[in-house]
Amino acid sequence: MHLWPHWLALIVLTPLVGAALTPVVALIDRRTPTWWALSTMTVTSFAATMLVLRIFHEGPFSYVPGGWTAPYGIELHFDEFSAVVGVICLVGWLAVLFSSRYTDSLPEFARGRTPYYYTLLLLNCGGMIGFTVTGDLFNLFVFMEVLSLSGYALVAVGGERIAEMAAFKYLLMGAISSLLVLFAIGFLYGITGTLNIADVTARLHGFEGPTAPAAVALGMLVVGFATKAAVFPLHVWLPDAHAAAPSPVSAVLSGLVVKVGVIGMIRVYRIYYGSGMFDLTVLNLVLIWLGAISIVMGAFFAVFQDDVKLMLAYSTISNIGYIVMGLGLATTYGVIGASVHIFNHALIKATLFFAVGAIIYRTGYRTLTDLRGVGRAMPLTAVALSVGAISIVGIPPTAGFLCKWYIALGAFQADRPFFGFVLIFGALLIFIYYIRMVNAFYFREPVHAEVAEAKDAPVSMLLPTLVLASLCLIMGILGRVPLTFIEPGVARLLAPLGG
Amino acid sequence: MRRPIAISLAFLAAVPLLAGVAGLPVHGDPSAPVHTHVSARYIEHGVEEAGASNLVTGVLLNYRGLDAAGEVTVIFTALIAVLAVLTVASTRDADASNHDGRVRRSDADRRHPDHPVSPIVHFVVRLIAPFTALYAAYVILHGHVTPGGGFQGGAILGGLFIALTMVLGKERTRPLVRPVLAPWMQGAAVLTFAAVGAVGALLTGVYLGFPVDPSLRIVRDLMLIALEVGIALGGAAVLAMIFLQMEAS
Q: Which has more confidence, A430 or A144?
């Protein structure tokens, strides 16, 4: 049997089945879950490569499990936005590799959790992949639950009191947002009688009948996904959860899981742009403003943090602000920039969390004051951290530059230059923080002996960090490739159906 | 001050939701889209196409099989989440049973359940246990014909396990969750879906496909029953193990 047409099913299946078997292989030996998770992610990454190759060849394509064509069965649909599975697999794979040493630093009482930790990591990646490649609203919800539930537990897995509280807060906000999304899907099903995204769009096109359910559904979907994406003012769960989680988990949560909310928004926007039911100007304006507030507020809070991980968490809110603002601008440049920033920010934020995680692993400290001088003790890790820092500020020629530039262009294209300046202001604010960080790490004398004597991170941590850091540079130089790749997808997103 | 704010917020949230519900087609209206579009085909052709007289099972396992596969994954995730958050190394019993295959227990434990139980409850639970198990088996195996199926039957089995554990004590039901078997049971539903889906891929060329050819009807029925049994075992294991884990911590 030729596998070429089946990769779309396999990429969803592999991590989930791999997860189900992780507790089984844990019976063999204490170390096997790590190797098992690594090989599962390797197969998944291979599937992702095949899918991305295929979309380069023939454009968007579908797979119908069970053989029932849409709308009667569930359709898996791979479009340009689904190509984000590439970065999900890459960061997921590297997070597993990074964890192989990190799980040793779990407190004594939590050692028994290691196999479950890997199970949850695989489930989380599988859920995200399923979410990005499904073409069915209810299926979207099911995968969202897989990734949300595993996310809540991953925050608490380290066992500290603060992590458990943060996970609980995350759980409460996440559960409410899931409920909103589920309720909205019910509304859409009630008025269209179908769950397939393309079919819902087609049936809402020229819809006759009361539009109230569709309008309320739109509101609930946007609020629900904005909570998952941590857009101001629905971000309150994020800083604690992302700062308290184990560092490889923070990389996955901050780099990938929040993006799921944005991808959900893109799917929703496809339905409403396509059907042309409502004029979305007001909603877009709300998104632009919320994005702008997120940018400035996230950067502002980040500047005043002493805890490095907390600062990275606030910077995620700021970056989600860029993406949401780009979406709200609804101009080609803005949406292209936003879509590519989904991808680039995942690389950058994972680099930063990996580097910081390695530093915390080696020194045991996590604040700027305690970590003075660490740049000289751990040169390679600190270089990766600096590359990540330059990228997140958006200095050319790094990955962060082009997408922010595009979003700013989008603001001018939409005739809203003010927001272009907000964007630059946010970048400048965050720049202050990184200057503080570089100053502390390189130019201040260490205050702790552990920091001065720390060795560079072990290979299993250094390798993922350096790979991602070099990707931050490569994506900056090859920045045009993703921009041109996503363009047809964006054109299709913004166009009304049949127009 | 907090309560009035909370109540007014709840009302504020309720207004748009009610407005949305008011705009939905009248409940039971035969011309509503939910009855005329996709489900019309399920009702008309579901029995012969999907191979289950119980239409709900047909939609759940066949037309929308990937959703059911996802749902059992959600349940599995919930169990792993509980285990990941609550597993604490100091559960010495678990370690002991891992090492020498059986549990060291005092004579007192052997005779008495963990909590005192009234003799009436003790007797009644033991009396109905075999019938409950039989009923669960019926619900599971007959799920593609009559209302019921793996999820419901699994819940009955899990409930039975919990009732027996409470009455007889953990030591008597522990052999059912041997350390070697437990991880297979936890993932039973997810793994069954993968296996049946792969068989379907070999037979029909698509993952989770069911053969429609009349000569292969028996294969299709067996696949459906295998799914029901897998869902039930996995579901029961999840309920039982969440219970055991929460009791341990």
A: A144
Query: How many separate domains does chain A show?
Result: 1
Please tell me the predicted confidence (pLDDT) of residue A75.
Answer: 93
Is B30 in CB contact (< 8 Å) with chain A? no
Q: Find the CB nearest A66 among B16, B77, B209.
A: B209
Contact (Cβ atoms closer than 8 angstroms) between residue A124 and residue A99: no
Residue A142, token pair as written in the block: 């099911």
Q: Does B27 map to a domain?
A: no
Does residue A195 contact residue A271 with C-beta atoms inside 8 Å? no
By the 10 Å C-beta count (0-12 exposed, 13-18 middle, 19+ buried), A497 is classed as: middle
User: Smallest Cα–Cα separation from A372: which of A451, A434, A453, A454?
Assistant: A451
Within-domain flag for B41:
no
Q: pTM for this structure?
A: 0.93
Assign B169 to helix, strand or coil. Answer: coil
CA A499 – CA A96 distance, rounded (Å): 45
Highest mean pLDDT range out of A14-28, A98-112, B88-102, B206-220?
Answer: A14-28
Q: Is B10 an interface residue toward A (CB < 8 Å)?
A: no
Chain A CB contacts of B201 under 8 Å are 1, 6, 9
| Residue-wise DSSP of B76-131 | HHHHHHHHHHH--TT-HHHHHHHHHSS----HHHHHS-SS---HHHHHHHHHHHHH
Q: State the pLDDT at residue B91.
A: 45
The predicted model gives A77-95 an average pLDDT of 95
Q: How much is the CA Rg of chain B, to the nearest whole Å?
A: 23
Torsion of CA B58, B64, B70, B72, to 10 degrees: 0
- Structural domain that includes position B165: 53-248
Domain-located, residue A397: yes
Does A153 contact chain B (CB < 8 Å)? yes
Count of pairs with CB atoms under 8 A, one residue in A, one in B:
206
Sign of the four-CA dihedral A385, A355, A125, A316: negative
Partner-chain contact B23 A112, CB within 8 Å: no
List the structure tokens of A404. 């922010």
- Secondary-structure breakdown of chain B: helix, strand, coil percentages, each rounded to the nearest 5: 75, 0, 25
Per-residue CA distances from B93 to A112, B100, B105 (Å): 14, 11, 9
User: How many other CB atoms sit within 10 Å of the CB of residue B116?
Assistant: 7
Q: Is residue B221 part of a domain?
A: yes
Residue B74 falls within a domain, yes or no? Answer: yes
Asked whether A30 and A115 are in contact (CB, 8 A), the reply is no
Residues of A in contact with B33 (CB under 8 A): 190-194, 203
Residue A262 lies in a domain: no
**β-pairing verdict for A76-78 and A61-63:** antiparallel
Rounded to whole angstroms, how far apart are CA atoms A479 and A404? 11
Of A13, A157, A189, the CB nearest to B34: A189
The torsion of the CA quartet B15, A217, A129, B62, rounded to 10 degrees, works out to 110
Run of H or E including A134: none
Count of Cβ atoms closer than 10 Å to residue B104 Cβ: 10
Higher pLDDT, A329 or A496: A329
Q: pLDDT tens, A154-176? A: 999 888 889 999 999 999 999 99
Q: What mean pLDDT comes out for the span B76-92?
A: 83
| CA dist list (Å): B209 to A6, A142, B27, B53, B198 | 13, 20, 33, 18, 9
